[in-house]
Amino acid sequence: KITGPLENRVIRTVYDRMAAMREAGGPDLDIILEHHANTDTISAIQIGRALEDLRIFYYEEPCHPLNSRSMLEIKKALKMPIAAGERIYTRWGYRPFLEDRSIDVIQPDLCLCGGLTEAKKICDMANTYDCAVQIHVCGSPISKAAALQIEAVIPNFIIHEHHQRALNPESRATCLYDYQPVNGKYKVPDLPGIGQEPTPETIAKCNTVTVTRSKKYMS
Question: Concatenated DSSP letters for 121-137?
């Protein structure tokens, strides 16, 4: 945890590293600073204010993801977009963040927020508050394919998360189709369902459970 108030040497270290990224990547590089809630309200504001001249694309999860009041305090104190949401659940969880405009970019995780249908509802609700969407993708090729389907049908999509796990050979080998970006862009799968299937080898390693309805409920 990096909690405040922070010493100047800590703030300077963060600034120097981010400035080096800006210099190496050039003026058009979009830099996302991910905190993963390792900072608190005070330290997030201190670091954010120090970095404002570096034009951060967005400032991700700068405090506890379920504390909308702290998120709002950070939002009001800084001149950069705030992103969060990979650990916020259902429309009702997102509601206070959208209503108080404490988040500019939501990041729902399809495996945690309530599934595909709930995620689509969250994204549509966010659109009414002028809030952009970047689906949180930090899992298998299945979650990636599902995210691409959602992102293709919402008007407030901003970027797709291409996590380092998407390049892991073991992960890529678990499914039939290996979707990777070409020149920074993905082609949305147009196969049945979400456009992805586990390989026979992957299925063979899994426990198989068959769910059926009781006969008395069957029509």
Answer: HHHHHHHTTT-EE----
